[in-house]
Amino acid sequence: MKPMDAQTQLRALPSVEEILHAINPFVRNSISHELLTETIREEIDLLRKAILTNNPCDASVDTVVNKTLLSLERKNRFSLRPVINATGIIVHTNLGRSVLAEEAIEAVTKVARSYSTLEYNTEEMKRGSRHDHCESLICLLTGAEAAIAVNNNAAAVMMILSEFSADHEAIVSRGEQIEIGGSFRIPDIMEFSNAKMVEVGTTNKTHIRDYEKAINDNTAMLLKVHTSNYRLIGFTESVEAKQLKKLAKKANEERANRDADPLLVYEDLGSGMLLPLEGLTGYEEPTVAEALSQGCDLVSFSGDKLLGGPQAGIIVGSKILIERLKKNPLARALRLDKMTLAALEATLKLYLDPEKAAKQIPTFRMLTASAEETQKAAEILLSKVRASVPSALCKISIEPEVSRSGGGSLPMLDIPSWGVTIEPLKGSAQECASYLVKQRPIPIVARIKQEKIIFNARTLLSENEMDEIALALCEYFKTL
Ligand SMILES: *Cc1c(COP(=O)(O)O)cnc(C)c1O
User: Fold this and answer.
1) Could you report the per-residue pLDDT of 90-114, keeping only the tens digit for each?
2) Most CB within 10 Å of its CB: which of 32, 259, 266, 437?
């Protein structure tokens, strides 16, 4: 009798017209007719398929209307949209690294909304350079003589290598042959920029004499790379930039006599911390100024890691070298757009007042918040979740957690934090976490540990986000 049943069910399916009429006219008129009818047809097709494969389904008009509206909402969604980061990882590369300071956001909207001084010098009433907007600020904050900002730090590394060591040798320690992720590998970048890589030392130990032995007339650069996302521990040794500079100096005295290009020391610093993270303990990370004071000719770092600004790669160093970089064709290809420049300038301005930087720059604030502050935030979240989720459906508690800096910055550093833990008594932690990411207009990314979902309070930006988490959990448990 089954085929008959299916036939009856198929005949009972609502028509496109029926669904169309059942949709609120206000909604109906705000969407293109084609998109609406196409979506309804898709939903009815899904029901038809379910019937033919003997899957139980609810084909009432109300249900089809709801499914259609949900599907439309999904089709209308932006692909790039906000998420709530409850992972506790502050510079989360997959979630966009740094959240911009309000001052930076305001600066972006201002230049986006109008024409700007991007390449116009108002003093001289003639063409200006986009490189001028941030240079003096970067110099002021790092003690550098000159600076240039490009698309990101990977771009900065590539540009430096291709300008100064194309067809020449660049010496790098085997302990610093890193992969940052997303296929950014030091050896690949070197190959791409035509620099001939000369590896020295061993994985765990590199001595100054290793560099010394490798230097020859064709050596253009001693490259030092911050081992961002991993740390060598145990029987290890690496050479400080200060020692490399000393070595280069010796070589350069002899080169000067021959009128040959000097041997450069360049450090890829990775994170780019401008000020010490007051309140955070247990990390060893030089500020950019400290790194420069070791005597490097060039230092490069990211704009959106510890600095807390937009995606950018900042290069600091001597005027002669930066001028050469400005003239490199890659500077044009890798240049920053006006919105990024606006955000970068506004973020750097905040650093002029260390207290302001610590308060207004979200990455800085989250890195330096005390464990007690995150506990207070977790308690607020706890009360919101308790108020909206029936206690019979899950165990809710507050627990100590750890946060990570993330994005390859401050590796291995556990930052004490607090979080709210949900242990579903109905459904599973996995299902709940999947609902929170896939079914919510603002996805909520949390961490699963055993049968629990943990919402780390350190990376929550506002009470609005906490309200959203409480609401989402409430809605999830309604679906069970
Ligand atoms: C993160 C990092 C990079 C890449 O920087 P992006 O700004 O992500 O391009 C390069 N080198 C080091 C040492 C890093 O830590």
Assistant:
1) 999 999 999 999 999 999 999 999 9
2) 266
How close is the Cα of 122 to the center of ligand 1, in Å?
Answer: 35
Tens-digit pLDDT profile for residues 414-472: 999 999 999 999 999 999 999 999 999 999 999 999 999 999 999 999 999 999 999 99
Amino acid at 276: P
Atom number, ligand 1, closest to the C-alpha of residue 304: 7
Ligand 1: residues with CB < 6 A are 152-154, 157, 180, 184, 225-226, 228, 268, 270, 302, 313, 408
